[in-house]
UniProtKB/TrEMBL annotation:
This is S-formylglutathione hydrolase. InterPro entries: AB_hydrolase_fold, Esterase-like, S-formylglutathione_hydrol. Serine hydrolase involved in the detoxification of formaldehyde. One of its GO terms (molecular function) is S-formylglutathione hydrolase activity. NCBIfam families: fghA_ester_D. Belongs to the esterase D family. Gene3D superfamilies: alpha/beta hydrolase. Its EC number is 3.1.2.12. It comes from the Bacteria.
Length: 278
């Protein structure tokens, strides 16, 4: 595996980079963005993985969230993957909430998706194996994301709590097995057995979790997808039934957009820094 660099821009004393590589888990070429803070010029730094939402690529967060200034101050690299496998040979659907741009961070088991849609393995296994070899990164990492990506971040951290120092999410899809977005994606990617869906359902996972990394969730109360698609209350109930201490906050007046993310990304980065450097 080799990363081919496509772009580089100086940013807050660090470097905003864009790479292309062939992803073995996905059997296709992928692009990803990485922010390396100034500290990475002389030492290895820990990483925050960011998982984006429906319709996004690696560009949305890079351009709109305004995370790099604080990442530069704290010395945290930002790893920003795409949201699905891509390419003409990769299965797709005309709808925005299925197929390319809507990988849901699962390993698909159903045709025609199974050949490429293995985003769970790509994020949890392939990128953490290749990136610290190619870039000045330690093995220490945390994870965050938005909406579909918030779902992905919570699921990865709940399934592999030892792999992530901390997890946070903006407007996550908290109970995909019970909302339209999730049911559509999971029935296509995973088939009709709901027990299989629950392996990718943050509320189901949290309800039975015995080990939970430090967790912060922000949800805007004017979010156009709340509560129907996001089902934040299910995550609150799950936390109560497992006894896990998670910080789930409602932010008054905020919607689902990147304006919301950019308003609170500094708090999320400072939250992660507490655990990435402990
Ligand atoms: N296009 C869809 C929603 C897509 C959407 O809101 N995507 C969110 C994540 S769920 C996003 O981050 N969009 C990209 C952006 O705002 O830059 C709709 O209109 O219902």
């Amino acid at each position: 595996m080799s990363l081919t660099q496509l772009a580089e821009s100086r940013l807050f004393g660090g470097r905003q980079l864009k790479f292309e590589h062939f992803a073995n888990t996905l059997s296709c070429k992928m692009q990803l963005s990485v922010y390396l803070p100034p500290q990475a010029e002389t030492q290895k730094v820990p990483a925050l993985y960011w998982l984006s939402g429906l319709t996004c690529t690696d560009e949305n967060f890079s351009v709109k969230a305004g995370a790099q200034r604080i990442a530069a101050e704290l010395g945290i690299a930002l790893i920003i993957p795409d949201t699905s496998p891509r390419g003409e040979l990769v299965a797709n659907d005309p709808a925005y909430d299925l197929g390319q741009g809507a990988g849901f961070y699962v390993n698909a088991t159903e045709a025609p998706w199974t050949a490429h849609y293995r985003m769970y393995d790509y994020i949890s296994r392939e990128l953490p194996a290749i990136l610290p070899v190619a870039l000045p990164l330690t093995q220490v990492k945390s994870i965050s994301g938005h909406s579909m990506g918030g779902h992905g971040a919570l699921v990865l951290a709940l399934r592999q709590p030892a792999a992530y120092r901390s997890v946070s999410a903006f407007s996550p899809i908290c109970q995909p097995s019970q909302c339209e977005w999730g049911r559509k994606a999971f029935s296509n990617y995973l088939g009709d057995n709901v027990a299989d869906w629950l392996e990718y359902d943050a509320s189901a996972l949290l309800a039975k979790a015995t080990m939970v990394p430090p967790m912060l969730v922000d949800q805007g109360d004017q979010d156009q997808f709340y509560p129907a698609q996001l089902r934040t209350e299910a995550l609150i109930d799950a936390a109560a039934s497992s006894g896990a201490k998670v910080d789930i906050r409602f932010q008054r007046g905020y919607d689902h957009s990147y304006y919301f993310i950019s308003s609170f990304i500094e708090e999320h980065l400072r939250f992660h820094a507490r655990y990435l450097f402990e």
